[in-house]
């Protein structure tokens, strides 16, 4: 699931029996929850409560988190005298691509129960993010990679770096003493000191004729980073694409035509579906696919994406 940083996070867990039916935990027993961050460090633990009248659905509230990360919430309950566990992941983002209040006003989405609504919206945002190959909102990620000596440090597979919360080289801290760094929030990528590669104890400087930059190089080694990446603003057409995809997922889940149908004929009209091909038509929805093709990252490390 996705959640906005800085706000309370409500995580739900479905306790199911071997038949897949929702059931309540054994009488007199408690369902517990343990929350850890992306490094495995424990953040909070406590008791999960039954989510209203939904027997078998348990709710745990996580205190607001300021820094973006991928949290794991592990639930444990007793069913038939046996301990049952399950883990829910929470991707913290700085905002939703489309505000939930706006999505709730859509006719196709407003009729959905809350849990189905949240599931479909998360699925739509995740699908758009995967198709773009970058995040249209700011999100946190932890990575480990090897690097050779260079003026800019490239983080493979991560585009539009925005902020670094933590960075080590061969398990040695690389942010302490860096100009513009803040122990609580790390350092922003676009600060001038980072852009030019200046840092703490990185060796002698040299001129890179390709980048046209005189800077202190980042030394080779094994790097581990906790970074924030993505777009700080989402274009209106990309937000609309998320809305259209969420609406499509809600409508197709409520209709009876076959999954492999290529057209629908009614008394009023005939509708042809575009066939997804994974390249220029990832979803088979022209209004969505056209936006994806326009914004998708065409190749690794294009321009200065993924570098600081």
Written description of the protein model:
- The structure is a single chain.
- The two termini are 29 Å apart.
- The protein is flat.
- It has 308 residues and is α+β, with helices and mostly antiparallel strands.
- The chain has helices spanning 100-103, 107-110, 114-132, 192-195, 236-254, 286-295; strands spanning 2-4, 9-14, 31-36, 42-50, 57-62, 70-79, 82-93, 139-147, 161-169, 172-173, 187-188, 206-208, 213-215, 221-229, 263-265, 270-272.
- Helix 5 runs antiparallel to helix 6.
- The strands form four sheets. The chain has a seven-stranded mixed beta sheet with strand order 1-7-6-3-4-5-2, with no helix packed on it.
- The chain contains six helices and 16 strands.
């Amino acid at each position: 699931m996705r959640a906005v940083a800085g706000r309370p996070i409500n995580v739900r867990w479905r306790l199911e029996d071997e038949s897949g039916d929702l059931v309540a935990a054994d009488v007199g027993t408690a369902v517990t929850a343990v929350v850890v961050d992306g490094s495995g460090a424990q953040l909070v633990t406590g008791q999960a409560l039954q989510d209203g009248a939904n027997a078998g659905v348990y709710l745990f509230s996580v205190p607001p988190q300021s820094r973006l990360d991928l949290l794991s919430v592990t639930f444990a309950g007793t069913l038939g005298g046996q301990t049952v566990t399950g883990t829910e992941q929470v991707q913290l983002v700085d905002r939703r691509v489309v505000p939930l209040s706006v999505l709730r006003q859509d006719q196709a989405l407003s009729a959905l129960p809350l849990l189905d609504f949240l599931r479909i919206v998360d699925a739509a945002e995740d699908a758009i993010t995967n198709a773009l190959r970058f995040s249209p909102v700011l999100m946190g990620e932890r990575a480990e990679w090897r690097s050779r000596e260079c003026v800019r440090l490239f983080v493979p597979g991560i585009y539009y770096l925005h902020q670094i919360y933590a960075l080590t080289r061969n398990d040695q801290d690389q942010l302490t003493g860096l100009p513009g760094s803040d122990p609580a929030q790390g350092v922003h990528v676009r600060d001038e000191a980072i852009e030019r590669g200046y840092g703490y104890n990185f060796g002698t400087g040299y001129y890179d004729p390709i980048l046209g930059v005189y800077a202190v190089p980042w030394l080779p080694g094994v790097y581990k980073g906790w970074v924030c990446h993505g777009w700080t603003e989402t274009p209106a057409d990309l937000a609309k694409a998320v809305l259209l995809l969420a609406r499509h997922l809600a409508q197709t889940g409520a209709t009876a035509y076959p999954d492999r149908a290529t057209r629908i004929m009614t008394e009023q009209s005939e509708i042809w579906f575009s066939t997804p091909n994974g390249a220029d038509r990832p979803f088979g929805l022209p209004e969505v696919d056209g936006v994806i093709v326009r914004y998708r990252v065409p190749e690794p490390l294009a321009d200065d994406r993924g570098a600081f």
